[in-house]
Amino acid sequence: MRFYKFKPIYQERVWGGRGLSEKLGRSLPEGGPIGESWEIVDRPEAQSIVDGGPADGKTIRALIETDAMNVMGPNWEAQTHFPILVKWLDCQERLSLQVHPPANIAPELGGEPKTENWYVAECEADAALLVGLKDGVTRDEFDSALRNNELEPLVQSIPTQKGLSMFVPSGRIHAIDGGNLILEIQQNSDTTYRVYDWGRIGLDGKPRQIHVEESLKSIDFNDFEPKPILPEPGAQNLVESPVFNLEKRDIAAGESLSFNGGEEPRLVGVVSGRLIDSADGAAIEKADNVLLPYASDFSFTAESDTVVVITSGFGG
């Protein structure tokens, strides 16, 4: 059993554009602005489809239902959905100021918890991330600023740089500025509450829905000025959480990247460069995100200097 690559599912977003064509070398569908490429997803409304190999054309749901032990591990229930959603985000304009509900609040609101991480693959010189409240901001100050359309000064702004990583647990207020290309690893959830949208008009010509009540119930008002992980050469642990773990590795041309089967399933996203599977010569190209199943050993060789983000800690 080799790795699984999936066909991307492109999503129109008012803040997107056509940049994934040039930045990732993708052929985009005709139509409006594309903001997201869903690389790996197992949801009722969106199913990743295997692209190539013996399982070509199978959905990720069918893959797990028919071979859960080999794909996910011996303790994985076949009916349990794949727990991670992987996206590329092409942020041409600023996203809404938003929050995802924590696990203890989500059921009350009819949503799903959503912890995520952003890895900045490319960014423009003036791009930023809005993450967490500025130190000392109170709930009353936030409420007043919301009524007066003056929220931005209360939220921490972090200048982005290539290779920066930002963890965004459920409950953390956030927005992504325009000018960022981001690899997002998140819980399998599509619940987002917009607290403010900068007066924007949606793709349908109407103001987008705002979720003030849900947002105020979800925001952690003790979450002040969280820090990103800045890029360093070599291997970096980016996230250790109950939901998933992330690691970044720099692999020089000719060096190898290996994983033992029987440990856990993993995801490998190639941010730059190219990996070659030593077993059969199959390539994992720049911008690819692949699933390495639980049961298989893997050894890759970097064809050129390569940066990968590895997701673990989610399997059975």
What does this structure look like?
It is a single chain. This protein is mostly beta strands and 316 residues long. The chain has two domains: 4-218, Jelly Rolls, CATH 2.60.120; 236-312, Jelly Rolls (Sandwich), CATH 2.60.120. It contains five helices and 23 strands. It has helices at 19-24, 60-72, 106-109, 139-147, 212-218, and strands spanning 4-5, 9-17, 34-40, 42-43, 46-47, 84-91, 97-99, 116-123, 128-133, 155-159, 165-168, 174-176, 180-187, 193-196, 236-240, 245-251, 256-259, 266-272, 275-277, 283-284, 289-292, 298-302, 306-312. A six-stranded antiparallel sheet has the order 1-21-18-23-16-15, with no helix packed on it. The chain has a six-stranded antiparallel sheet with strand order 2-3-6-13-8-11. Strands 17-22-19-20 form a four-stranded antiparallel sheet, with no helix packed on it.
Nutshell version of this structure?
The chain is mostly beta strands. It has helices spanning 19-24, 60-72, 106-109, 139-147, 212-218, and strands spanning 4-5, 9-17, 34-40, 42-43, 46-47, 84-91, 97-99, 116-123, 128-133, 155-159, 165-168, 174-176, 180-187, 193-196, 236-240, 245-251, 256-259, 266-272, 275-277, 283-284, 289-292, 298-302, 306-312. It comes from Rubellicoccus peritrichatus.
